[in-house]
Design a protein that fits this description.
Layout lengths: L2 H35 L11 H4 L8 H46 L1
Length: about 110
C-alpha cells in the first residue's frame, strides 16, 4: 500500500473519532438541559400500615381461623336451606303440573 494513502486513511479515522466525540458531547449537553428543564418529581411517601389495615388482620390467627370455620358452617346451613326450598318448590310445581293443570285440560 501507498504510504500517502495510509496517512490519509489514518487522518480520516482520526477526524471521524473527533466528530463522534463532539456528537456525544453535544448529545450529553442536550440531555442535561432536558433534565434541568423538566418539572421536579414529587417525592414518594411511605404510607403507614396501621391506618389501612383491615380489622381482620389485627385479630390473632386462631380468631381468624374461628371466623372462617363459623363462616363455612353458616354458608353450608344457608345452602342446605336453599336446596330444601328449591326441592319443595320443584315437587310442588311438578304436582301442580300433574294433578291440577291436567284436570283443567280435560274439561
Amino acid at each position: 500500500m501507498n504510504p500517502d494513502h495510509q496517512s490519509k486513511e489514518q487522518e480520516f479515522k482520526q477526524r471521524e473519532a473527533e466528530l463522534k466525540e463532539r456528537e456525544i458531547k453535544i448529545r450529553m449537553r442536550e440531555l442535561e438541559a432536558e433534565l434541568e428543564d423538566s418539572t421536579p418529581v414529587q417525592p414518594t411517601v411511605k404510607h403507614k400500615e396501621s391506618l389501612g389495615r383491615p380489622w381482620y388482620k389485627r385479630l390473632p390467627k386462631i380468631a381468624r381461623f374461628g371466623l372462617i370455620v363459623v363462616g363455612v358452617i353458616v354458608a353450608v346451613r344457608v345452602a342446605t336451606w336453599l336446596a330444601t326450598l328449591l326441592l319443595i318448590f320443584g315437587v310442588g310445581w311438578a304436582g301442580y303440573k300433574l294433578f291440577w293443570e291436567g284436570d283443567r285440560n280435560q274439561d
